[in-house]
Design goal:
307 residues; alpha/beta; four-stranded parallel β-sheet; 11 helices; 14% strand
């Protein structure tokens, strides 16, 4: 039997999907699992995946995998599922249960080889420990380079960088079209190389984007900052999850459809007087330094205030 598992969306979603792949193979150990996504590198050397194809490389797919074959099709998008929209469970859990797959707490997985560590790692060798950060996400060449529902405000990020720059090599994961910071080493590289960087890093500060999923897949606890999205849906318990401060203004929701805020940024939805109100930079700094218990207590308090 074949199972076709289709994953739309960004690279972080594909990384999360590796947990779904593991759950699928647990339930159907003899099945040939074929993954369709925009990011085949995520599934390299994954023992649960028989074949990883891109959407632009599906020539003769129907006669090879569908016509006359014993094939299950897992094609639906969990973002459009009722349980997901009402935030009734983690993305991975909703995804599994949507397909009738039993969820047993599977986490994302990435499989990095020793050769990759040696080859890619040479670019990141540093006399100081590495603090890896990702402050912006989203697709390339966005009109607005800062999306308040997702990204870390520049002033907040710069204060954090300045605090650690003397003792750490602060490596900033960012594309050329994303906002720069001072006192950092900017890096734009292939996904597999960035995974090696995250694995090599001593400390990590991320937003809800691909890097926090990568860190979870590699078993690397990180500090992750959340604004519109919530860790109960997209995050991982191994991380120290910092929740944004409660809104200080009433947002305008005329463009909201299936989520409260548009992650791609609607200026009219901005529920603060200014960006400095979103996070307490000192709380993030303490979390990076390692006071996880205090940081988590503060985040739980913020969640209660938001309810």
């Amino acid at each position: 039997m074949k199972i076709i598992f289709q994953i739309s969306g960004g690279i972080g979603k594909s990384i999360a999907a590796t947990a779904v792949c593991k759950a699928i193979k647990t339930q159907y150990p003899q099945a040939e699992l074929i993954v369709l996504s925009g990011y085949p590198d995520v599934f390299m050397r994954n023992p649960n995946v028989s074949m990883s194809l891109t959407f632009g490389n599906l020539n003769y797919f129907y006669p090879q995998h569908i016509e006359g074959k014993d094939t299950k099709l897992f094609l639906h998008d969990p973002y459009m599922d009722t349980e997901f929209i009402y935030q009734r469970g983690h993305l991975i859990k909703v995804w599994c249960e949507m397909f009738g797959i039993k969820y047993n707490g599977e986490l994302p997985e990435l499989f990095i080889t020793g050769k990759e560590r040696t080859s890619f790692g040479t670019a990141f060798v540093s006399p100081k420990p590495i603090l890896a950060i990702q402050t912006n996400g989203g697709m390339p060449n966005q009109t607005d380079k800062y999306s308040w529902p997702r990204d870390l405000p520049v002033a907040t990020a710069q204060k954090i960088v300045n605090t650690f720059a003397a003792d750490y090599n602060v490596v900033h994961i960012r594309r050329q079209d994303q906002l720069p910071l001072q006192n950092v080493y900017p890096v734009q590289a292939d996904f597999r190389a960035l995974a090696v960087l995250i694995e090599m890093s001593t400390k990590r500060l991320f937003i809800d984007s691909f890097a926090q999923h990568t860190a979870a897949a590699l078993g690397k606890p990180s500090v992750v900052c959340w604004i519109a999205n919530v860790p109960s849906q997209f995050g991982y318990e191994m991380h120290t999850n910092i929740i944004a401060n409660p809104p200080t203004m009433q947002p305008e929701f005329r463009n909201s459809v299936f989520s409260k805020y548009n992650i791609s940024d609607q200026v009219t939805e901005f529920p603060y007087n200014n960006e400095d109100e979103i996070f307490d930079a000192d709380r993030i700094i303490e979390a990076i330094r390692g006071d996880k218990k205090q940081a988590e207590a503060e985040s739980k308090k913020k969640v209660k205030e938001l309810v």
